[in-house]
Amino acid sequence: MDDLTLDAVRAGEAGLADLRIHPETLERQAVIAQQHGNPQLAANLRRAAELTSLPDEEVLAIYEALRPGRSTGAELTALAGSLAARGLPLNAALVAEAAEVYARRGLIR
Amino acid sequence: MAGPVTGDPGRSPGETTARSEKLIVKSGRERFMDAQRVNLDGFAVPDASLGLVAMDAPADPPPSLVIAAGRVVEMDGVTEADFDSIDAYIARHGLDLDVAAETMALTDTNFARLFVDTCTPRAEVIRLAAGATPAKLARVLALLRPAELTIAMTKLRARRTPSNQAHVTNRLDDPLLLAADAATAAAFGFREVETTVPVLADAPSNAVACLIGATVAAPGVLIQCSVEEAAELELGMRGLTSYAETVSLYGTEQVFTDGDDTPWSKAFLTSAYASRGMKMRVSSGAGAEVLMAGAEAKSMLYLESRCVALARAIGAQGVQNGGIDGASVAASVPSGLRELMAENVMVMARNLESCSGNDALMSESDMRRTSRTLPIVLAGSDFVFSGFGSIQRYDNMFGPSNFNAEDIDDFLAMQRDWGVDGGLRTVAPGRLLGLRREAAQVCADVYRYLGLADFSHVDLAADAAGSKDLGETDTLAVLGAAQAIRHRGLTVVDIVTALDECGYPEYAERTLAFVRARLAGDYLQTSAIFDEQLSVLSLVTDPNDYAGPGTGYVPPPARQAEIDAIRQVRGVEDLRRSQSAAAIPGLLRPVGAASAGTSPRDVVIGVSPALGVDVWQCLSGASVADVLREVLAGLEEEGCAGRVVRFPATVDLGQIGLAAARLSGSGIAIGLQGKGTALIHRRDLAPLANLELYSVAPSVTLELYRLLGANAGRHAKGATPDPARNPYSDEAIEARYHTTVIALMELERARVVPGAAPVELSLEGLR
């Protein structure tokens, strides 16, 4: 963050990667949210910290997969497994829970 | 944000739907009432089966919560097996089960009282609300009356310092006009700017133009470009925008699904925005479910309570509600405006940022739309408007907002009238044109440097009140620029480079400093905005500490001065200057002590201490010289001779007129003050009695002053005068002139010499 200076821009040393928020920053903000009476905001920021490791296209693809009627139950379960295997347990839990509720509420493909 | 508002162009004022076949014959008074603009508005027969009821519908469930082994097994009358997807998400993630039993055991009334009781701290209400089910919170909010909602909002909003958001859009997506208008919005004090597009593909260009324009005017203004999710996320990932708020939630599963989302997809999207360091809030609000025929016979407030509980459950930091696109639906039913405000307070009680609606024109009546917004201005909100239409109504691509460009001065006056901070400030006269030109020029330079487009209408955009003032523009060039930004993957770093290379290192550094500040992540906390020093003000750094009179947010002295100093204020010295500009040196030369007249045709015109000394122009705009000439001419018409005598001892017109009558050979006199108030007096009357009085000085024409002279002459001769009628009008005459009257009277008072004898004045200067 401190590297993002006008000199760095002039030297051509600043790019898209320098615009990305750091997962540790999000974890620190999650702690603050928890301390200020909002554990749900904290949970969101922790899911976000995990997602910093995924490319933009994949983030958008997971969003698409979670929309109504886009995925089968098996596809959602597989997606949850894949996320868990890659070190995104919180997002994996979110997708797994979606798979369970979607099946009951007719939201799967 | 607000979507396009659909009106019914087929209706004209006064048209009403026949309630029965019986022919109604109306009086002129009723026809007059029918013609008022408020009768263009639609008012609905409440119908709970359609969801056309503000609060407490028969089908709203009674609050309930059953917890077994740390898990919610029943909520608001629905058992776990029957939870729909909204129930399920709230039950699993949205409630604080440690406090829920305590909350649900409170009676609705006792809970409602805690919202209003200034001895109960905000934190206690927040703690308890975390354990309230949607039905519980809806019932509690329905108990709060308007004044109580105002207190509750004052106490419960998360951020201590109120703020405001602007819509900046135009019909043409013209980048130079967007830049000039974003700069204007930032100059007026808006801390968030929301843009959108009539042409979807133009979105990247709009984001860049607003970013540049806002940066020219002030550091730290958050920018949003409201478009489809993937496109919006992409703009955010590239640092071109800095917040999102159009992530919609709905109160029934059917409508949620029709909106092509689920609570889980929205929860994921919420995290996706945060993962790219972008602030976001969700959108909900009454009326959406009704409009989509999916309200399931529930009240607007109950359905919104589900949305707000879900917003908290998915971890969004804030909610835009208070009707939004459906504001006029709520406004069509009894207690609808109360419901809209209750939605905002509910968000605050759930410890979330409130972006409080007021962003869709909910009435054709100026009084109704003011009535809708005023309580929120008085209480103060994180964002008083979720889009004040800072631009022309016709340029607002969300549809007109509840307040628009023509209302900015009104809003600034409202802040000043009530001594409250609605987030806006006056822009110094003359500053806007230069600022707008700079913003448009910088935008044109950046577009040219980056090879996006070659625009040359900087001066037109700087001066334009709206896009209709631009004439023909090249909309294809805009589309080309937007596509280039998108396909070349331009980021905020490219904008910084362009600003730097085009000779604007200060704006380059300002843009970069803002990116760095956002990367620190503090603005992801509840209710976060940046001030102009790039400090974050949020629930964390600027917590609301209202606990009754003498506590909570009071504008700091510098801010209070800003609120008070609207550009229209005038003081005594301003008036003294404008009066002296109209001075005619030597107009009324003193010629010595005035003596009593002897001729029966002698009529004295008694003038006040400062007339023709410091006061040269009457309230009507006529010069005192012309007024005196007309009065003298009127006297002459009737064969009388007027003379002018100054009475320095008093400013009281009755005293001046009576004293003048006692000097008059005829016993009749005219009294005249510098502001133009005039009367005819007679020597045997009491001071406050008179024969004729021109009390409405601003409306007195030169013809009427001549008539006054003639009537005084007729009185002097014992003839019958034709009394003048005071020219009353429907103008707010007192609002227009009272401040000037006070200043004029001060100029008069300053020239008073107590006990001084009357002075005869020469008529030479009047000839």
TrEMBL record, chain A:
The protein, known as: Propanediol utilization protein
Against Pfam families, the record matches this protein to: Dehydratase_SU
Q: Which InterPro entries does this UniProt record tie to the protein?
A: Ppandiol/glycerol_DeHydtase_su (IPR003207), Prodiol/glycerol_DeHase__sf_su (IPR036091)
TrEMBL record, chain B:
Please list where the region (Disordered) is annotated: 1-20
Residue span, Diol/glycerol dehydratase large subunit domain: 26-573
Q: Name one GO molecular function term.
A: cobalamin binding
> Would you indicate the residue range of the signal peptide?
none
**InterPro entries xrefs:** B12-dep_deHydtase_bsu (IPR010254), Cbl-dep_enz_cat (IPR016176), Dehydtase/Dehydtase_re (IPR003208), Diol/glycerol_deHase_lsu_sf (IPR036999), Diol/glycerol_deHydtase_lsu (IPR003206)
Tell me the protein's name. Answer: Propanediol/glycerol family dehydratase large subunit
